[in-house]
Protein 1
Amino acid sequence: MAAHRRSRQRPVGGTTARAAVTVVLAGTATAAGFDGAAHAAPRPAPAGADVDRLYREAEVATEKYNGAKERADSARERLRDLQDETARAQARLNKAREALGAVAAAQYRAGGLDPALRLMLSDDPDAYLDGAALAERAGSRHHAELGRVRAQLREIEKLRGAARVEVKTLTTRRAELGRHRRTITEKLSAARQALSRMSPEERAGITGGTGRAARSAGGTARDTALSLSQAPNARAAQAVAYAHQKLGSPYVWGATGPDAFDCSGLVLAAYRSAGVSLPRTTYAQIDAGRRVSRSELLPGDLVFFYSGISHVGLYIGNGQMIHAPNPSAPVRVAPVDQMPFAGATRVV
């Protein structure tokens, strides 16, 4: 193009200058895509896509929160068990020391106190453990009693060490819970703000029906009976029946029923009603049974979505599932192909 040629080394003015500027601007406009043949500027993503993305990110954080909470609860339970066992061991130690005290009193009245007993009855367990060899050399007539107390002291120290580890683990898990909780709160707050800027029609496309409308979306009693009859076993049928009963219930992250649920909490509660214990998170639930292909799906199967296995629903037949979508939508029926399918599991 003329605009890209090297100009002669002389002043340019008047009409020639204006022509040169025109050519340069024309070339710039073409390069920037302002002429008719250039590509059009990309359209902004619809507002609903932003809300969906925020809800997915919140759900990922929710499943991480659920996993961290499960681990924190386990650490808390182990710590409680260790504390109880330590208390029982301390009671056994106290009883053994009382028995040794009676022996020591009798020896004192008889004219002397065995050196090993003096060591054993010390208030400083560390001093006893350090001087255990001395107790052996003392030739005590009560080696069996002394051995039991020594074992109990060591047991208590071991339990206390394990308890210190669990306290540290619990502290770490609580910090993890706090991080995930903040992420969830931030994502859901941003989603609410995005929803507030949308038109009623756009919001309806995301939130769907609530209450009675969501329940009616579950189909007729005949449809429910049909899905129950196709379930592979009684447990699956009970889980499907439970999910039907919960249509219209609100989504609350971290909830497992009976009145509110998140996605993994709903399937957990459904199978809990059938006497089956499922893991808490989607990441673990997908391994809670036998994997089945999409073509093999039967009512009661768990269906998972997205590459990170961050969402789960309960298959009810005819290409449909019941799931807890997000805070803007209640528990409801939806097609399985509504989201990217990641796998399915049959609880056995």
Protein 2
Amino acid sequence: MRKPIENVKVFAQRRAKIAEEISGKALIIAAHPEQIRNHDVGFAYRQDSNMYYLTGFEEPESFLVFRPGLKPETVMFVRRRDPDRETWDGYRYGPEGVEKEFGVDKAYPIEDFAKVAPTLLKDVDGIYYRLLKNKEADAMVLSVLEKLRLSQGRTGYGLLSIHDADTLLGEHRLVKSEYELTHLREACEISAQAHLAAMKFTRPGVSERQVQAVLAHHFLMKGSAREGYNYIVATGNNATTLHYNFNDQTCKDGQLLLIDAGAEYNYFTGDITRTFPVNGKFTDEQAEVYEGVLKVQKEIIAMIKPGVVFKNFHDTATSLLTDLMLELGLLTGRKADIIEANHHRRYYPHGVGHWLGMDVHDAGLYYKKGEPRTIESNMCFTVEPGLYIPEHDDMAPANYRGIGIRIEDNIRVTDSGCEVMTSSAPKEIAELEKVIGQA
């Protein structure tokens, strides 16, 4: 048996809010597909965020069909109970269990989707569904829509209009409830304490993978189900590769170590990056670059309050980091010309932050009606300026080559400012030098 469903009412309340926007239409959500290794052995499964957001259901091979105002309103298609398969793969709820445990009006076996779904959709005038996310599910949904069109004969009706479900649900997921913030804060705190444990463990001679093991151990021991994204544990020049994840090198004396890792807790994820010296002591050049990036991060965080345009954070970070590049001698010329020509992207190729929640790059629009959006209370996002100077870059002064630094925290917008949910992960130079290697 799976663990008890945490709070069925929360999922019903979320569906009720969605219902207010899609009257006369239906919402179809497909489960995330399973990934199978050789010999029928699967990867660890993680449900599609939107499916979990609206149902709490974690099994693959399933659909939600939500029809506000119609009976039955909430319908699911799920795998049947199968003792033989459950011996191999674990417990299944089956249609009867889903109706009993998840508060849905009706559940059918997944094999009945092609037969039953056209009947469920005949009384709606459009659907919300995310195409190009799950090829097998797309084929099933489009087949159902074609069957519905053919059943209408010569009425003149074509396929139902399809609207993007991710855009619809992303706007609801963007502003967090207190219930959601409780889980996100826990994910952030587990992540922060894991980073602290990794700092204490790090010393010359340990491997990147051993540091990763410290993070993973802490995540799981503190109640996290999994990491929120692939671990980045990058020592030395590896830190200048943004999504480095080989994590197989030895941490050497004199190098910096960049760790980008976050725990997932009840489908909400933290996303923290810290950079610090393997031997516990910054060199003058490392400290100079680090303090410059940290100053930029602090200035961005100080700007955060409701009503500020999110794009302003990106523009300010670009301006301040370009100033830093000029101070370090990485670039020369007029700042405005450098930015216009995107020359700053040689050392700062990403944005300063992204929405955070159930997915590490969470749902929600950054522009509305063509205009950059303003932030609101209880929106959550990252602030992560960085500077990356590859060791092979002969344009950079030699004493800075091989330095890669990113500092990332997780932010909740409050009514008058912001809450830094990852503040227990040290980032001041004095704090870092005090804890590194102290395990």
Protein 3
Amino acid sequence: MLRSGIYSYPQTQRIIYGTPFAQALAKELDTVGAQRVYLLASGSLSRQTDAVQQVLQVLGSRSVGVFDAMPAHTPRYAVVQAAQQATLAQADLILTLGGGSITDAAKMVTLCMSNGIETTDELDRLATRVHADGRVERPEFLPPQVPCTVISTTLSAGEFSALAGCTDTVRGMKENFLNPQASPRSVILDPALTLHTPEWLWLSTGIRALDHAVEDLCSINTQPISEATSFEALRLLGRGLRAVKKDPSDLQGRLDCQLGAWMSIIGSSAGVHKGASHGIGHILGGTAGVPHGYTSCVMLPHVLRFNQSVNAAQQQRVSEALGFPNQPACEVVAELVAELGLPSTLRQVDVRKDMLDEIAQKSMHDRLIHTNPRKIHGPEDIRRILDAAF
């Protein structure tokens, strides 16, 4: 039987890599003709570096506001606040400088602006709903009218995706918001800028990107393009993360990581389904406050072990790409996490034992639990994985 499928190219028009960010931004502004730019910036970059000032210098009179108070996991209240300010400023471009939470915020802000969202409760009509049986409800809503450009400083790769994550802090749930046209219009990758990124954040989001590639390569509905890019992503990330751990000033290693993160997310545009490492990770972030990258450090080896009986051949390609073809993928990934000095248990990321049942129950409402290669029948299966990771 012939293999068949459909691949949809993402809306992103340009990815500019290896160029100093101020230079790349100046050219991009001229290309798109933006005149009223609203900046979402990392608080730490704003307080501890001159990167925001460099951006503002490039923007000049085109700057119409700066928001640098976005907390981790992109909570609803902060998104709505930023969207209100950008709307009042009549922004014609949302620009980001920072990591994954800032990138998600930019996508959320553009969706709020185009759909008239003025309160946190109004986001209910845009959020994806996943039922415990796996049924997914995706509401229809207007695409962004104001584009965004991302200057990325971490490796979680949300800048290459139309999917935005945002946390409902009242329910303690990280939710998904998806419009196919919500991808950033352009992405700027400057390895020198990432010298400011804390080591733990750089390396752990690198494992998050590695998780994208692993779960795509091991997916139940792989695509030819994502198989190729996921394999190369693992090669680049495995090499680049080790290089940066050894020498934090290694710009080639940092660029390898950035290019690997870009390649790691190609499957998302093709509709390739990820699995339980991502699914559980979403709940660990929204419910237990675990940083995005750390969720993959802790969960991916155990999910690989859980799935090994159904996709051993695909997992062997993971091991091959990471340079250890004769070892189980779960061991190869665990050893890389240890080599980078990252946490490997739920205890190390401050998840309490009495939280595991709640996490298992909530995980059933994440759509990626229901596309895991080995069928997850209920919270008890998730609890087995969580116990192994504790």
